[in-house]
Specification:
By secondary structure, the chain is of the alpha+beta class. It has helices at residues 4-16, 28-37, 43-56, 60-64, 68-75, 82-97, 106-109, 117-128, 137-147, 156-169, 175-188, 207-211, 270-282, 341-353; strands at 228-238, 241-246, 257-258, 261-263, 285-298, 303-315, 325-329. Helix 1 (4-16) packs across helix 11 (175-188).
Length: 355
């Protein structure tokens, strides 16, 4: 028998469901792509990337047979680039081991690169309507408030209690609508700050609403300030071309192209940093010239400020000691090389200032 809270939630969802491009389909491929893109990324950011991706790669076979460069060019700007590598590797595995069909079981789904407990449950529920709960941040927040949970829902005990209550509410055979209704409730009503409790269909069952503790739920561990690093990047020119290198795939921004350089060590100037890094990475000695600019970006676990300098080679020929490969590229050709946010900003500035 369906719990009255679940009935109220599904009734609310039938009237207020968000219109998203991956809704209205149970195509496992489309749902898989959407769920990978949505990892740690806002829906509004994902939508244009998802639309372009599905237009260029309408099937899993299209992903499996595409080059990593093409995939990264389409992914550029979405961040967390390891997801793109995982999509490609998983697509190859799906074609080779699953006859091109996305598997339906959570166990088989978790055997694919980039798919963990949450994503496997989401695909199983949304694409195959299996009775599974996809416990993402929205669901954790909703159930933490429903239960007035006094511990962090990401801790094992907190997650066990949240998942147990969610599974009790899950109406058999309606996993797709149930999970998506909770995702929408968390995105539209049960907001992290200033939840709209007066509009919430679950308010009659919400202990945090009853106790007035909504702002205190979910409980979170204290956050520490992000470390801030400083780095130097070199713009090396030769006959109207600029040197860029492709980063190793097992590193941050793997497979993307960059202007060579690296992090500043204590007690060295940015110019000394660049000279040392280019000697270590490329085996060359350089004179550091004028500064092009400085660029900031925040990643999940750190912040970085990169200072870009023009530099001239004094001795040596650049070698890819710390890159997969090097390329001397005309600024007009930069668009063909996938880059991270800072390097793309530098490339655009160079395109306007060189040649």
């Amino acid at each position: 028998m369906t719990h009255p809270a679940s009935r109220a939630l599904l009734h609310w969802y039938s009237d207020h469901a968000r219109d998203l491009p991956w809704r209205g389909t149970q195509d496992p491929y489309a749902i898989w792509v959407a769920e990978i893109m949505l990892q740690q990324t806002r829906v509004e950011t994902v939508i244009p990337y998802y639309t372009r991706w599905m237009a260029r790669f309408p099937t899993v076979e299209d992903v499996a047979t595409s080059s990593m460069d093409e995939i990264l060019r389409l992914w550029e700007g979405l961040g967390y680039y390891r997801r793109a590598h995982h999509l490609h590797k998983a697509a190859v595995k799906i074609v080779e081991q699953f006859n091109g069909q996305i598997p339906s079981s959570q166990k088989a789904l978790k055997s694919l690169p980039g798919i963990g407990e949450y994503t496997a449950a989401a695909i199983a529920a949304l694409a195959f309507n299996h009775d599974a709960v996809a416990l993402d941040g929205n669901l954790r927040r909703v159930f933490s408030r429903l239960l007035d949970l006094e511990i962090d829902p990401r801790r094992p005990e907190g997650e066990r209690r949240v998942l147990s209550w969610a599974e009790d509410l899950l109406p058999a055979g309606q996993a797709s609508a149930f999970n998506q209704s909770l995702m929408d409730l968390g995105a539209m009503i049960c907001l992290p700050r200033l939840p709209r409790c007066e509009a919430c269909p679950l308010a009659p069952w919400c202990l945090a609403f009853e106790h007035g503790t909504q702002p205190l739920r979910p409980v979170k561990k204290p956050t520490e300030p992000l470390p801030h690093y400083y780095a130097a990047a070199g713009i090396l020119r030769r006959e109207n071309r600029v040197l860029i290198g492709r980063r190793p795939e097992d590193k941050l921004l793997g497979g993307l192209w960059e202007f060579p350089g690296g992090k500043q060590d204590p007690n060295e100037s940015l110019e000394q940093c660049l000279q040392r890094e280019l000697e270590e990475e490329l085996g060359i000695e350089v004179n550091v010239g004028a500064k092009l600019g400085e660029y900031e970006h925040t990643y999940t676990h750190f912040r970085i400020t990169v200072h870009a300098f023009f530099a001239d080679i004094i001795t040596g020929e650049p070698q890819p000691f710390d890159h997969l490969e090097l390329a001397w590229v005309r600024p007009s050709e930069f668009v063909r090389y996938p880059m991270g946010k800072i390097d793309r900003t530098i490339a655009r500035q160079i395109s306007g200032e060189i040649l």
